[in-house]
Write a structure and sequence with these properties.
Layout (H helix, E strand, L loop, with lengths): L4 H9 L5 H7 L5 H16 L7 H7 L5 H9 L10
Length: about 80
């Protein structure tokens, strides 16, 4: 089976270990969304609230939906091979 452009791009996505970078590379959000989520995390920390993972913050902000969150998380599975 030939590699499609999407498969090749998926392989590039797994080069990053940061959730926000993967989300941006998948086209599910932009850098400003990630920066806003990080700022949200900082504000929670300043208020001594429990830490929230960036994916959950992006979900709560409405930037990504549940399916997109799962899609990003799946890029971390065995051997960093994305699951379609």
């Amino acid at each position: 089976m030939e590699d499609t452009n999407a498969e090749v791009e998926s392989l590039r996505i797994v080069e990053s270990d940061r959730f926000g970078e993967r989300a941006v590379k998948l086209g599910l959000c932009d850098e400003n969304d990630v920066l806003a989520a990080v700022e949200n995390q900082r504000q929670l920390a300043a208020k001594h609230k429990p830490h929230k993972l960036i994916g959950l913050v992006l979900l709560e902000m409405g930037v990504i939906d549940n399916n997109q969150l799962i899609r990003i998380l799946r890029t971390y599975e065995t051997n960093n091979t994305p699951v379609e």
